[in-house]
């Protein structure tokens, strides 16, 4: 136990250390070593490299050994439904897009793959099943450049600040705003509107 004194747990057991690490990773909903290391600075927790040394295993093996997976009930009641609603908000099933633009309260891609023990395509199939079970309608509004232009002009006429969040909250999908960001900027500038561009969120 002396090897743990550097973490100010002179009387701590390995079980207590593992519990602290588990709590941190499950709260972060991200199992990457880099994310863990960033979030344990100044918390008297061992870094990922120190964990590998202390427990004589690599990070991946530590995760598989000590991080518990949710019950089938929790997956069905919480994890999958929350993911379905987040994908609906993003209006995209692309895994890289999800990882980059997800609400940061939503689990990271690596967390989902580990907890569900599925690859992304399998996860999407489960999401489709949950959609049917919960009777969640698909996103049906199809935006064209013409309808988007009209929509943005109406927002501006109402005095709504044209930030990314406001555009998405008004009904434009996040994927559509990202794809057509330059078009939106040119539209507002060409119309001599003030503000003259789509503001980034601050």
3D structure, described in words:
This protein is mainly alpha-helical and 202 residues long. It has three domains: 2-66, no CATH class; 72-134, no CATH class; 145-190. The chain contains twelve helices and no strands. It has helices spanning 14-28, 33-39, 48-55, 59-66, 72-90, 95-101, 109-116, 120-134, 145-157, 164-169, 174-179, 181-190. Helix 5 packs across helix 8 (120-134). The model has no long low-confidence stretch (mean pLDDT 80).
Helix and strand arrangement:
Elements: H1 14-28, H2 33-39, H3 48-55, H4 59-66, H5 72-90, H6 95-101, H7 109-116, H8 120-134, H9 145-157, H10 164-169, H11 174-179, H12 181-190
Helix pairs in contact: 5-8
Brief sketch in words of this structure:
60% of the residues lie in helices and 0% in strands. With 202 residues, the protein is mainly α.
Low-confidence stretches: none
Q: What is the CA-CA span between the terminal residues? A: 47 Å
Helix-strand pattern: HHHHHHHHHHHH
Mean pLDDT: 80
SSE class: mainly alpha
Radius of gyration: 22 Å
Compute the number of strand runs: 0
Number of domains: 3
Shape: elongated
- Give helix % range: 55-70%
Strand content: under 5%
Biggest pleated sheet: none
Instruction: Specify the number of helices.
Output: 12
List keywords for this structure.
202 residues, mainly alpha, 12 helices
